Every structure is written in structure tokens, then in C-alpha cells.
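Could someone model adenosine-5'-triphosphate with this protein?
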Amino acid sequence: MTKNVLKISGLRVAYGGIQAVKGIDLEVNEGELITLIGANGAGKTTTLKAITGTLPDCRVDGHVEYDGQSMKGLHSFELVQRGLAMVPEGRGVFTRMSIHENLLMGAYTKSDKALIEADIEKWFEVFPRLKERSAQMAGTLSGGEQQMLAMARALMSHPQLLLLDEPSMGLSPIMVEKIFEVIRSVSAQGITILLVEQNARLALQAAHRGYVMESGLITMSGDADSMLDDPRVRQAYLGEG
Ligand code: ATP
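Reply:
Sure, complex below.
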């Protein structure tokens, strides 16, 4: 039977008087690559922050279950230990540390040094650009390389579920293609992914299933291939018709 990794039901989030998320349901099953697409301000990042419990002071209603349990009140350290990793918008790499040091930081919940180094080598195979620049300061990397480093760092914690917030944002078309190649390859290794993206075409091409979010509501969901063929998605998100 398919294992449910993430189950969101009736989630509502309000920042003061602004209802950013208006009661959404979303599920991610083990091994799936799910994308949540939608325009600027639709509520996608707020949804991810509700999953990790990193929202600022605001009203949250509804349920978020990870691995069948609520995560209310857990510290980020405990979330990472339980296999939840997030790569936020803007990436947040440690700019004054080298690539290698950033990757070591990603393994902060682990203690076996030999295994950590073996993991770094493993992820260097997926991210060869990082291997070539292992000693380079993260702050001197290009935007795309920093995005790769942020992903590799999150993967160092052995996540069961990887949350990615707009990984293609601000990158050149070639780098965007490369990032999506990496996302597919991470997914092919069996890691469950929830991908928030504005690049609907690439996201749906990579994903198994998708959800469309508009003004705080999920307005469409389904199999990614059928969504790519859906006239409403084609018109609103793929720039067609
Ligand atoms: P983007 O792609 O621009 O990040 P998004 O779909 O991720 O868009 P959110 O960032 O979740 O959208 O924003 C949803 C709504 O909530 C927007 O109207 C936004 O202005 C509002 N909002 C987000 N963060 C805050 C905050 N800290 N305080 C007040 N309002 C906020």
C-alpha cells in the first residue's frame, strides 16, 4: 500500500486580516514528486512554511500531518531528525563557508564522520559542479550553483521529504534546465519531493502529480501529464491560447 508522507487538510493561514491560505487539502505519497504551482502571492510559500512550522506570528487552522503525526511545536532540529528538509526561497547558503563546510553543516544531525564524507562524495556525483569547486566560498558561487549547494546541503540530512521553494527563481534558462535535471535525479533515488514552482511547464514535466493554487485555494489537481494537456492550465500557466 502507498504510504502517505504528508497530509494537509483544511489548512487556513491568516496574516492579520489577510487570509493567505483559505482551506486547502494536499497529499504527498512516498516516492512521489508533487508540484504546487501558481502565480505570485497565491499562498504557496505560506503553505510550505505551515508544513515546517516557520510562519511568523499568524493564525493557522487545519491539520498538517507528516508521517501520520502532527509536528506542532517541534524544533527545526527535530524536523530534520524526522526526515523533513526544506530549501527556502533565496536559498540561504552560508556565504562565508566553503562548499565542503556548507555540506558538513547539512549533516549536523549525524555524527559518523566517514559516513558524512561518503555522503558528500555521493552527492558530488549528482552535483559535479560542486565537486569541482569544493573549497570555494559559497558566497562567490553563481545563483544556480548556490541553489545546487542549498539542495545538496538539505540532502545531507537524509530527508524522507524534501520541500523545494522556487528552485528555478532568478536563474538563467540553462541553469534552470540543470536544476530540473537534478530534481529528477534526486526523485529517481526515491526521495519524496514537494516542489513549489512558478515555472509550471518544467515543474509539471518533472512531477507525478500537481496542484494549482490561486488566491489561497487549490483550484485544480491531478496527474501531471493530464494537467499539461488541460486547456485551463495551458492558458493560465503555460502561456498558450
Ligand atoms: P511568491 O511566489 O511571490 O512567494 P506565494 O504563492 O509563495 O508567492 P505567499 O508568499 O505565500 O505566496 O503569499 C501569500 C499572501 O500572503 C500574499 O498576499 C502575501 O502578500 C501575504 N504574506 C506573505 N507573507 C506575509 C507576512 N509575513 N505578513 C503579511 N502578509 C504576508
